[in-house]
Each structure stands twice: as C-alpha cells, then as structure tokens.
Amino acid sequence: MRHFLASRPAELPALLDHWVATGVITPEQAARMRADLGPTPPPKLTVLPGLPPAAEPHAVDRRQASIAIEALGYLGSLLIVVASLLFASRYWDDVSTAGHLAIVGGAAALLLLAGFAVPARLGEAAVRMQAVLWLGATVSTAGFLGILGDEAFGWYDEDLALLVFAGTTLVAALLWWRLPTVVQQALVVAGLAGMAGASAAQLQVENLPGVAVWGVGAIWFLLGWGRVVRPRWAALLLGGICVLIGPGMTVPADGGIVLALATIAALVCLAVLARDLLILAVGAWGALQFLPIAINEWFPSEVTAAAVLLVVGGLLVVGAVWVARRRPGASAPAKRRAYAIPAEVALIAGACVAVAVTAVILVLGLS
C-alpha cells in the first residue's frame, strides 16, 4: 500500500478521502498515512481539449497591472488635454504669447517625454500607451506651431498652414521611425497631405491643393502596394482615403469630378484584379461620395440618376462577389504575396507620380 501511494502522490488526498468515506480505513489511519508519506505536491490541473491552460497567478497579476498602468496613462493624458482646454477657455486672453507657447509647448513636451518613459517590459500595452501619448504630443506640437505662426509671426492662411503641417510632419515622422504603428503612420500621411496642399496653395490658384493631396495619396498607396511602407493594409487605406479627399477639395469643378471618378474606377479595377476587399471597400466608399455629385452636375434627370446608380451598384456587387470567391484563403499566403508589386517598381511609380503632379501644379499655377 505504501509503495502504491508513494508512486502516485498526486492522487493521495482523493484516495484517502474516498477510503475514509467508504469505511475502508478510519480517519485516524488516514491521518497517520499522510504523516508517514510526508507533504504531497499540489495536484496538476487537467486541461480539457479545446480549452487554454489556466494562467499562472503571477502572469495574471502582471496582466492586470499592465492594464491598470495603461488605463492610468490614458486617464492622465485626457486630464492634461481637459486642463489645457479649461485654462484656455478661462484665462487665454489674460496670458501673453509667451505664456500661450509655454502652456501648449509644455503639454507637448510632457506627453513626448512620458512616451519615452513608458517601460518596454509592458509589451503590447507599452506600444499602445506610447502611440496614444505621442498622438497627443503631435497634436500639441501642431497647436504650438499654430500659436507661434499666428501670434508671434503674424502669419495666416496658407503660410500658417504650411508652418503647422511642415513642423508637425517632421515630429510625426521622427516618432513613426521610433514607433512604427498605424497611429503614427496616419499622422505622417495627414501631415504630408496638409503640407503638400499648403505648398500648392502658395500659387493662389483654386483647386491646386486638392491635386497635391491626391498626389500624396497616390504615392502612399503605391508605396503600400509595394510593401515599402508597412503595414500594407494601413498604407493602402490611408493612401486610398487621400486620393479621394483630394478630388473632394476641387468639386464641383468638372476636372475634380473627372479625377474622382477615374480614381474610383482605378481602385475598383485594381481590387478586382488583386482580389483585395480592402481596396474595393475604399473604392465603394468613394463611389458613394462622388457619384451623387456627378449625377447632380451632369445628369439632372431623376430617371437618369436612378439608372446610373443602379448600374454602378450592380457592378460593385458583382465585383464584391468576384473578389470574395476568387480571393485566396489563409492556406495560400504565396498567392497573396504575388499581388504586391516589387518595391523597386513602387518607388519608381511613386517618383513618377510626384514629378507628374508637381509639373501639373506648376504649369497650372504659373500660367
């Protein structure tokens, strides 16, 4: 009996309790057996098929601590923003320009340093905290530059916008290089689009800023398609949004509508050829935005408008079904990679777009 129990120590407590309950041994005998065999190790937990193993207590404690720290970081960032807004609404007019710069610049510096101070041992929580803190720092930097240009330099309109977007883009690019997250990438794209639009606005020609924003979006889309910029889906999404926002800045001009519809057609065709639902979704969103405008401008008849919407809607449905049926599954990663153009081709195509858009802006602006 002793040899049997010693060979199966994990089952000892349950066996002794069972024998006592069935009257095989007395409670006193069970107590002597436990004392004779010494302490027994804790029983092992049995993991049922399909269920994850139970987390260790210290792992749970670490996860709970990281969640609490992350929540405190978000709350602190929110309080900084709220405090700045309250101070600005109550005492802004009573403070000098230097005070305004100190307040906003101090908030930017505090959020920036807080992001650097986040310990890397928090893992994914650290990345999320840094992304949010540096988002606040970038926005505060834009506010600082806006105050500097407006109150200190006396700049306005396109000059002020160029200062704000150029400085903010520089900060956002440095932070994106340090922390390549989607949030930082979005800030870089927004800054580049704004800077390009403000630069084109210097020529004082209507609709040129929209063309410049379209160019930034097209270049970013190509860089994402060639996997020069990662993650690819974020680059495609951000570039697709820009190539639709740019023409939207030019409507109801006929040229802007034509550019928008051509861009939408290119996105839909590319989505069908590449079997990419994300690109198709961006193209469909653009169709919803610009088709009503084009119909109102070119086809005032209600019957014609309904017919056009019906045809376009049917084509989008057919395209979606085609993409869904032809799209490779998770078991075919090699096929999905084949739809990405080489990085060299993406860089050359992006450079060509940059040259072409710049030439169009200069020709139209200086003529």
Automatic annotation (TrEMBL):
The chain crosses the membrane at residues 71-92, 98-119, 131-148, 160-179, 186-205, 211-228, 233-250, 256-273, 278-299, 305-324, 345-366. It comes from the Bacteria. Keywords: Membrane, Transmembrane, Transmembrane helix. This is DUF2157 domain-containing protein. It comes from Kribbella sp. HUAS MG21.
